[in-house]
Amino acid sequence: MSQQIRTVAVIGCGVIGMSWACLFLAKGLKVIITDPVEGAEDRFRRYLDEAWPSIQLQLGSLQQEPAKNYEFVADIVPRLIEVDFIQENGPERVEFKQELFKTLDQHARPGVVIASSSSGLPSSAFIGQCEHEPGRILIGHPFNPPHLIPLVEVVPHAGTTPAIITTAMAFYRALGKRPVLIRKEVPGFVANRLQAAINAEAYSLISRGVISAEDLDTAVTSGPGLRWGVTGPIVTNALGGGGGADGFNTRLERLGPAIRGWEKDMLEHRFDWSEERLSLLKAEVGNYLTAVNWSELTRQRDSVLLQLLKSKPNL
Amino acid sequence: MSQQIRTVAVIGCGVIGMSWACLFLAKGLKVIITDPVEGAEDRFRRYLDEAWPSIQLQLGSLQQEPAKNYEFVADIVPRLIEVDFIQENGPERVEFKQELFKTLDQHARPGVVIASSSSGLPSSAFIGQCEHEPGRILIGHPFNPPHLIPLVEVVPHAGTTPAIITTAMAFYRALGKRPVLIRKEVPGFVANRLQAAINAEAYSLISRGVISAEDLDTAVTSGPGLRWGVTGPIVTNALGGGGGADGFNTRLERLGPAIRGWEKDMLEHRFDWSEERLSLLKAEVGNYLTAVNWSELTRQRDSVLLQLLKSKPNL
Ligand SMILES: NC(=O)c1ccc[n+]([C@@H]2O[C@H](COP(=O)([O-])OP(=O)(O)OC[C@H]3O[C@@H](n4cnc5c(N)ncnc54)[C@H](O)[C@@H]3O)[C@@H](O)[C@H]2O)c1
Ligand SMILES: NC(=O)c1ccc[n+]([C@@H]2O[C@H](COP(=O)([O-])OP(=O)(O)OC[C@H]3O[C@@H](n4cnc5c(N)ncnc54)[C@H](O)[C@@H]3O)[C@@H](O)[C@H]2O)c1
């Protein structure tokens, strides 16, 4: 664990905040939590009890009892003096975050990172009223649930200082996460855009009647999806070109012309969100999803996920 | 195994043909192989020896010695009388396949499926000279290597008969494959288009300087890629919307407007294959790939792949 960071504030303890808090606790940090919703503390205790075993499994640790080193407070402001890192997970509304970040920036100790889990708003959209040290604000966008999925997208705004970026990356890394640096604010950051790209083509093919929704999923889970947990698009391309540093260029040269032909057709027929195509899509998807065994599927997904995470500690 | 199919012809025994032949043998079929290249038979024997253990591992079977029930022949024509299914894996050139399919169609027994592994050419492009029974020709497009990756895209042309489609799907399924039916010939079929979609956005983001090539791969392998071996795009969307048959629509309603914003930006900045962006892309990718430990990576990929395949026999 990063030496200086011992106490973390979790602001907003819903779906994402609860999961972050579990991870911080499992890593031996003290966690101060605030969330105005009624029953927030009870809800968190139940979540922690449920999540604890899989966190321990992933960490290869054997701590039977969930850590208790957390505290719910009604007002975080007077406690910010103790806090070494802030992870914000409140509602995704710009006015809300503007107001909140103004307050946090006003009261956090100098040099303390204030990271927002925001999946949509870049931090430049809500730092306008921060008068003290806006350079310590950035996005630390996790993937749900952050206590299991390693990816964190670190997205600085134009004025975030290099030292703060370094501190945030090192902190997430020390938690066992895999932070990636998004060098420019773009809508959707990176992982959500990559997902959007595959989704858009999936919606297009299904609504064109090229393939059923079920077969579309199979085409991923029994094909390229089997590898994307280990080799990303770039390395996968390079291996397709024979591997090695030249493999990527070899593949581009060999397949480039064909790929450009596919792209042309994809663009021409791209999913346009028209009522007509939406209703074709929803009808096909509806047929498929009524037949899915959800509990079996999520059980299998979680077990494969844990296996994958254990099998590639250093990837 | 499908009751009627006992003997398979493998036409062309390169990268893809060798792998198909191994699988057919492991499933107890007799295989008649033809490939004019010098040393084809030796090359195949070495491939079979190497591939056999992982096939057995995947099948949960314990057959120590590779099957010997195959035969290389210089001319397949006189042997087609014995053959119950043809898998073609020759070079990806339209004139070549036109000529070859004319001959195969002329001599194969009536009702015998002639499947081409072609990854690019739809069969309508090369059946023009088939005068006997063009309705038994279709694409059976595997993913490399077919002896391990379950996906087979079955792509009929407009005149392929329903009975032939059914026979081909049943045959691949009996081999333990996961065939999906592509209902209309589109360039790139389905899985390659989905890969092209994610690749295009990856190339765009890297060449725009939004993220490094290495972090791009991490954004997949530590994020959404961890799930795509179990849940495809549609089910993943539905789970993101709370699961169940309504989850998909819920997610579309909740995130649709944001996604359309990302798509707009993606389209505006899409990778255009210009010299400028290509060279930015290649420079970034080059930096990354020189540092990759390829043997460690492929070892890890193969072991994860086998684990995944064993962990989801019925998905
Ligand atoms: N759900 C996801 O999959 C996901 C993934 C990555 C990032 N995010 C981001 O994380 C953030 C939280 O999303 P979520 O899904 O956990 O939402 P959520 O609605 O589950 O949780 C938000 C919590 O904030 C609390 N809150 C409201 N006002 C507050 C205040 N003044 N101070 C402190 N807490 C307050 C709410 O009571 C609620 O418990 C959002 O910015 C979202 O974009 C969500
Ligand atoms: N390589 C892949 O990843 C991949 C994946 C899916 C499908 N495919 C498709 O599979 C087919 C074969 O591709 P490959 O990668 O195995 O190519 P390859 O070059 O490795 O193999 C082609 C083989 O065909 C042989 N051949 C040439 N003339 C022949 C003839 N008259 N009769 C029989 N064999 C002949 C060649 O000697 C060679 O061994 C192509 O249609 C390709 O699109 C390839």
From TrEMBL, chains A, B:
SUPFAM superfamilies: 6-phosphogluconate dehydrogenase C-terminal domain-like, NAD(P)-binding Rossmann-fold domains. GO terms for biological process: fatty acid metabolic process. The keyword Oxidoreductase applies. Gene3D superfamilies: N-(1-d-carboxylethyl)-l-norvaline Dehydrogenase, domain 2, NAD(P)-binding Rossmann-like Domain. Residues 7-184 form the 3-hydroxyacyl-CoA dehydrogenase NAD binding domain. Residues 188-235 form the 3-hydroxyacyl-CoA dehydrogenase C-terminal domain. The chain crosses the membrane at residues 7-26. PANTHER family: 3-HYDROXYACYL-COA DEHYDROGENASE FAMILY PROTEIN, LAMBDA-CRYSTALLIN HOMOLOG. Belongs to the 3-hydroxyacyl-CoA dehydrogenase family. This is 3-hydroxyacyl-CoA dehydrogenase. It comes from Capronia coronata CBS 617.96.
